[in-house]
Amino acid sequence: MATTATEAAKATEPKAAAQEQQANGNGEQKTRHSEVGHKSLLKSDDLYQYILDTSVYPREPESMKELREVTAKHPWNLMTTSADEGQFLNMLIKLIGAKKTMEIGVYTGYSLLATALALPEDGTILAMDINRENYELGLPCIEKAGVAHKIDFREGPALPVLDDLIADDKNHGSFDFVFVDADKDNYLNYHERLLKLVKLGGLIGYDNTLWNGSVVLPDDAPMRKYIRYYRDFVLVLNKALAADERVEICQLPVGDGVTLCRRVK
Amino acid sequence: MAATGAGEGNKAAAGSSASLHSKTLLKSEPLYQYILESTVFPREPDCLRELRLATASHPMALMAASPDEVQLLGLLLEMLGARSAIEVGVFTGYSLLATALALPDDGKIVAIDVTRESYDKVGSPVIEKAGVAHKIDFRVGLALPVLDQMVAEEGNKGAFDFAFVDADKVNFLNYHERLLQLVRVGGLIAYDNTLWSGSVVDTPDEPLAAATREFNAAIAADGRVHVCQLAIADGLTLCRRVV
């Protein structure tokens, strides 16, 4: 999730949150940064579990199941993409016939694997994360799935990579799809660059745009420190995307909220 | 879908109509309203808003698709580059209008409903005004015979890019068999109300909840499609035909 150099200090926030969660004795599969009793944005855990049990897990590729299980043991696992979101990404990629894609924020690679499995044999993903170690945790699953060759992993902050790409005109409008699951305080900076790099009609997906539902909490409501810190950025992001005429948008309550932006200008 | 919505007029309309859309599967009503007010209403084309508000005062308004749902449908259609669609269940024509707006000028939609009364009274004038009525081929009648006839007609097999089913739940699996012949490989079939207000887990033995659960299990096991079940509106299941 964290991809800027200055993220090092803030990176302790997800860690602190994860430690909080473990102290609560949550032994079962960890999920996003949700409250106890609410594993998703849905009105009940039972309903969310129903969707997972009925439509997601029976169709989840073996490699993704494996990667999900490996990730569940990791202390920062609340950063991972949820299984229903992985399935959704997979479908999106197939629907738009994407071939050249990008992912900003990899963690252990669950959404990366979902994407790689959906791409054609000659599909590519330029994947960026400041932390290669986490990526290497999931890499064996990706290799076993036979899709690692589609991935070009760059360790480090994403902005410089994007700026480099933009410097060459050849890259403008060359990407079919980008998934951004990273530092919320940089989403708008990524957005400006991605709008040059994604083709007309191409798709950008921004993750965590409902931020555990905190977007509607009053300012003085109790919330975890890192939720409160990034909440303002998420609120500003949502306003900005809604007003951006260069894209058509749709905000879905999948995972922690995914906003799809289709470039139209 | 043309994004022509910004402005004060929208804000006023959004404020007054926000409470009209209060069925949600999300953990809180304010969260749902947030999505509508920040992302849906500001981008809603005028004609779609007009039809939404006109439909809201209909006694059977609960039957209509929800605004966030039709926004997604429009986006999906554009992502697919869809040119032809089928709609099973029209009511006033709200999702039909959203579909028509997303198709190119020579796009075609076969719209099926057992009655066209609500459509003629409420939706048709708005759809005419929006300049997209020519894309719609409305067929009155029970959907099964209409679909059977379409399957039998020359040139219809695999001819459609997209289908939206928002109709009688007990027939969903029957519609599914026909639509799998009419929609092309790689095309999309979307089924509405597949979470049935959450009753699929709250009251699973209640007849309609049980029928919905049966449908969900059947398509999840159907190797001819890849599925994705979204907790948007009352549950929207996307099926991409792969075989």
TrEMBL record, chain A:
Q: Per the record's keyword annotation, is Repressor included, yes or no?
A: no
| Xref: Gene3D superfamilies | Vaccinia Virus protein VP39 (3.40.50.150)
Q: Where does the UniProt annotation place the signal sequence?
A: none
Please name the InterPro entries in this protein's record.
Cation-dep_OMT, SAM-dependent_MTases_sf, SAM_O-MeTrfase
Where are the compositionally biased (Basic and acidic residues) regions? 29-38
Please indicate which superkingdom the organism of origin belongs to.
Eukaryota
Gene Ontology terms: biological process: methylation
Comp. bias (Low complexity): 1-28
Keywords attached to this entry = Metal-binding, Methyltransferase, S-adenosyl-L-methionine, Transferase
Write out the ranges of the annotated region (Disordered): 1-38
The molecular function terms in GO held by this entry are:
metal ion binding; O-methyltransferase activity; S-adenosylmethionine-dependent methyltransferase activity
Q: Which PANTHER family match?
A: CAFFEOYL-COA O-METHYLTRANSFERASE 1, O-METHYLTRANSFERASE-RELATED
As for family, the record states: Belongs to the class I-like SAM-binding methyltransferase superfamily. Cation-dependent O-methyltransferase family.
Q: What is this protein called?
A: Caffeoyl-CoA O-methyltransferase 1
List the lineage, top down.
Eukaryota, Viridiplantae, Streptophyta, Embryophyta, Tracheophyta
From TrEMBL, chain B:
Q: Which InterPro entries match?
A: Cation-dep_OMT (IPR050362), SAM-dependent_MTases_sf (IPR029063), SAM_O-MeTrfase (IPR002935)
Q: Which domain of life is it from?
A: Eukaryota
Going by the UniProt record, its keywords in alphabetical order are:
Methyltransferase, S-adenosyl-L-methionine, Transferase
Cite the GO molecular-function annotations of the record: O-methyltransferase activity; S-adenosylmethionine-dependent methyltransferase activity
Q: Name one Pfam family in it.
A: Methyltransf_3
Its GO biological process terms?
methylation
Gene3D superfamilies to which the protein is assigned, alphabetical: Vaccinia Virus protein VP39
Report the PANTHER family cross-referenced here: O-METHYLTRANSFERASE-RELATED, OS09G0481400 PROTEIN
The family note in this entry says: Belongs to the class I-like SAM-binding methyltransferase superfamily. Cation-dependent O-methyltransferase family.
User: In its UniProt entry, what is this protein called?
Assistant: Caffeoyl-CoA O-methyltransferase
Q: What species does this protein belong to?
A: Dichanthelium oligosanthes
